[in-house]
Amino acid sequence: MEKALGHIFNFLRNNRSYNKTLQEKHYRSVIKPYNNVTDKVVSLLYHIANTQSQPKIDSLATFYKKIYQNIECLNSFESFINKIKPNQTPEISYKGLYESIKSQPGFGGKTAALFVKSIFHLHNGQYSDELRIWNDVPVGIEEKDDFYLPVDSVIIAIFKKIDNNQNWNFDNINSKIKEYYHGQDIEVWDDLWFWGFITQNGSGGNRTFQWNENKYWALQETDKNQEEIDLIKNKAETFLEICNTTKNE
What we know:
By secondary structure, the protein is mainly alpha-helical. The chain contains 13 helices and two strands, in the order αααααααααααββαα.
């Protein structure tokens, strides 16, 4: 498994610009319409919660009510973590943010990891400074900190493809990756969703792996220039070749 993951990781690391461009466009649509910090955080929270395939509306409403009753807690990274997990002493870190969000009604590991990843992106210096929300967010992921990959069905399907002997899920995929990768290297794995999404057909366990141009077009933020599409298609086919040749390695 280590060898297979190594091949995929190298592909992701060498092709970061494509998903980054897409993500920056998405963040702009979520963050830029708002001028104050609280509105930006609320917008991000709602957008990420709405990525759930079956959001728990009643539970999420409980969380939203708590936030609106204490709206000032959204003014900083530290105050947000402290407010949403007040009965403990959470770490003021990416790990602390993840654990705090995960414990909220309506949120689970994948959604919490997606929020944390977004906060990291907005503050790690690789995206436009215009997208920054808070002034007290760690720029990098320190050695003692931790980071989680937002694992969903697309990523699970990839892991099943390279090793079908495991019952893959959010927890064991993150555990497997962390056997070999740490800190900001784990964030590189977030690009796996983009390449997996555009190379899968079908749903659930009935997926075929091939370039899926319709899914590429379904992503609003992708570059629709034909030359760029042809380039992405070639990259996607390279990604598929890597996945096919690293099965059970």
